[in-house]
Amino acid sequence: MILYPAIDLKDGNAVRLVHGDMDKETVFNENPAAQALEFVNAGCEWLHLVDLNGAFAGEPVNAAPVEAILKQTKVPAQLGGGIRDMATIERWIDKGLARVILGTVAVENPDLVRDAAKEFPGKVAVGIDARNGKVATKGWAEETDVMVTDLAKSFEDAGVAAIIYTDINRDGAMQGPNIEATAALANAVSIPVIASGGVSSLDDLRNLKSCGAPLNGAISGRALYDGAIDLGEALDLMKG
Q1: 23 annotated active-site
Q2: Which of 22, 92, 87 lies closest to 57 in space, CA to CA?
Q3: CB-CB neighbours of 45 under 10 Å
Q4: How far is CA 121 from CA 1, 109, 127, 162, in A?
Q5: Which of 68, 125, 175, 180 qualifies as a FRET site for 119, CA 20 to 30 Å off?
Q6: What's the confidence (pLDDT) of residue 21?
Q7: What is the three-state SS of 152-192?
Q8: What distance in Å separates the CA atoms of residue 119 and residue 176, rounded to the nearest whole number?
């Protein structure tokens, strides 16, 4: 399993939110590129980036810090938030991004996901963010009636590289991930699933590894910044 350290970008800073609430932020680093380098130098082999402002605006807002991260680090990075048309997808991949994460458009314009996955094989992931089993969009501000598993299954034949599943109620709350729902999703589809939301201890990572589902990896943010998860130990655990 891969450990994806999260760098959430708001107003140019690396922050963490609680339950996705833009008014409940903690700034962890005013230099996101330096933070990314710290993760890479510690042994991380991937980076997970989120343009929080972009998720609400519907277009990239924190492009400058993302570009700085891509220039200064040599590991692959995936980015979500405000990527809602083919031109933006193409632009980010041209700039060296390894994987774009499509969330809102996966619900509103699934054909774009399919077209992008064909155009850029292995470089398109679907971000499924859920509250009580139902998908939320537009920076988690809008709830839909779409069920998580139904949305995931609709992309089975699309060539999507991964599904990033976030339980919004767990995100940033340091209460552990929704292991049951994550495992159920991973067992329901053949697309690799990455767990996100609430990963806050080494035990959480152990539980995800032994959940009985073939998970690709897990994303952790606040716990790495707060020191609740020792990054070196976590990387050893995930590789073991």
Answers
A1: no
A2: 22
A3: 15
A4: 21, 18, 17, 11
A5: 68
A6: 86
A7: HHCCCCCCCCEEEEEEHHHCCCCCCCCHHHHHHHHHHCCCC
A8: 36
Q: Which tokens go with 164?
A: 């990033």
Tokens of 230: 């020792």
The pTM for the full model equals: 0.95
Question: How far is residue 152's CA from residue 34's CA, in Å, rounded to a whole number?
Answer: 35
Residues 6+ apart with CB under 8 A from 141: 56
Record the tokens describing residue 183, joined without a space.
């495992």
Enumerate residues 6+ apart whose C-beta is below 8 A from 122: 99, 161
Structure token digits, residue 74: 């040599």
* Active-site hit among 51, 129, 167, 171: 129
- Cβ proximity of 102 and 95 under 8 Å: no
Q: Which residues does 195 contact at the CB level (< 8 Å), separation at least 6?
A: 165, 177, 179, 182, 208, 215, 217, 218, 219
DSSP reduced 3-state for 13: strand
- Per the annotation, the verdict on 8 as an active-site residue is yes
- 91's CB contacts (< 8 A; 6+ apart) are none
Residue 174 has pLDDT above 80, yes or no: no
pLDDT of residue 19: 80
**pLDDT tens-digit series, residues 67-85:** 999 999 999 999 999 999 9
- Rounded Cα distance, 52 and 116, in Å: 22
Cα 161 to Cα 146: distance, rounded to the nearest angstrom: 21
The number of helices, as runs of H, and strands, as runs of E, in the chain is 11, 12
